[in-house]
Design a protein that fits this description.
The chain has about 110 residues and is mostly helical. It has five helices and no strands. This is Major facilitator superfamily (MFS) profile domain-containing protein.
Length: about 110
């Protein structure tokens, strides 16, 4: 299933990245003018983000995208959110669902 949702995931990633970059750029100068220790605030944010990455995101270097479901199933936190099925039923639903009906009506 990861290959089917990859473009949507990339779009969300880029949008969130641009939104957060905009927020930091807009917040930095006003905070720098008003707060004496603004760099400590951003340093604390970096520490929190580093801890999140260290504890909640598994290592994926060298793992093919087809095997990513297994990586999430093996992770101590995310395994409770991942379905144990192989995804074959969901793939059949996608192939047999509304997309198939749209093809039939467009050809008629």
């Amino acid at each position: 299933m990861p290959l089917e949702v990859w473009p949507a995931g990339q779009s969300i990633t880029v949008a969130v990245n641009m939104l957060m970059t905009f927020a930091v750029a807009q917040a930095f100068l006003p905070m720098l003018c008003r707060l004496k220790f603004v760099l400590f605030f951003f340093a604390a944010c970096v520490v929190v983000m580093t801890l999140f990455v260290a504890f909640f995101l598994p290592e994926t270097k060298g793992v093919p995208i087809e095997d990513m479901a297994g990586v999430w199933k093996a992770h101590w936190n995310w395994k409770r959110f991942v379905d144990d099925s192989d995804g074959a039923d969901a793939l059949r639903d996608i192939e047999m669902g509304c997309a198939g009906e749209a093809k039939k009506t467009s050809l008629a």
